[in-house]
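User: structure tokens for this one?
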Amino acid sequence: MIKKIINFSLMLAIGFVLTGCPKKPVPPPPVPVIEEPEKVDEEPTLRGKEYQSIPELKVIYFDYDKSDVSSEASIKIKENAEYMKQHLDLEILVEGHCCECGTNEYNLALGQKRALTIRDYYIKLGIDGGRVATISYGEEKPVYQNAGPPDSPSCAYNRRAETKVRAIQKPEEAPLKEEK
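Assistant:
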């Protein structure tokens, strides 16, 4: 009889060990809440967007391998400056471009000289230098691909400085940086 009790107890203990306690079910991960942006019934503006070309600002063209301003170009620059003086809420980006002649490095440097020439001209005409940034794209963004020799009309359109604008971002509208 004792043997039966020991066997029964042993079997019962083995049964408890093998089955163990049931595990708690793992809760499903929380579903992320996606908030819809507030819709504002305002006219679209340039605020928070990339710089854009606008028809009021004229493109300035340059002679082959030059960064100085012609008399025709100076008239366009003055017109651009007048527009920007009336729109103090705009940031300005002057992009310098070149034709395909020359090395990439040379064209980037020439494009930057062209952009800086226009920027300096704007500053002399009363535009706050803090509003004007410059960038050179060299030959990276041509108006005409494979425009031909330097004296071709299509190649001349690639030698330019474009003035682009966007609305100045007010401090309360600037995105907050996360602290790490």
